[in-house]
Amino acid sequence: MKRSVWISIALLLVVLASSLVWPAAAWLNSKDIDYEAVEKAWETGDMDEELKPEVDLMHKRRQTEERQKRPNFVGDVGIPQTMLILFKDSALPDFVRLYPEIPDPTHAIAEMWKSMLFNGGIEAEFFELNEAPDKLLVKVQRGWLAEDLVDFLVNQEQVKEVLWDYETYYPPGTDEAAMEKEKERLRQEAIAKEKLKQKKKKKKAAKTEL
């Protein structure tokens, strides 16, 4: 009798142990696990950790360089930087003519630049502006790469100018004085049009009152 009781207890323990081990064993042998994706995720994490000291070193070096150039500089070159890109008038029409199958040339150009920059070691985010297909905003998280980003952008055939940190940057060979003069002419022209518009509006209002 006692022997049969002990056998029953032993069998019960085996069953319980099996039920506890099975879920783990099933997970480890599951065909649903994408081991390649897991491995890539681990590799990415390893790369981030490996690159961090280099990124920190670059940050410190650029910070020192900036303070040497500007003794009164008290900011941080690591702060993310944003700039506005203006396309040439011919940029989008030329792109559409070359690639008529691409529905959104602004987006395509942004993606092309993003890929080129990434291959060159600069991670940048591009943002399209509503109702302004000839403009793009671009943001770089590592602020000390902003000058490199500007250098890249002004050398792209589609770019007319880049606005960053209250400065305007033009492609090499641009007559900057002529560009600024033209901007001022257009500004004065816009002011004159607005004044004329307001004058007509007041005159119309005066007639209505009579």
TrEMBL record:
It comes from the Eukaryota. This is Selenoprotein F/M domain-containing protein. One of its GO terms (biological process) is protein folding. Residues 1-26 form the signal peptide. Keywords: Coiled coil, Signal. It holds the Pfam family Mesd. Residues 176-209 form a coiled coil.
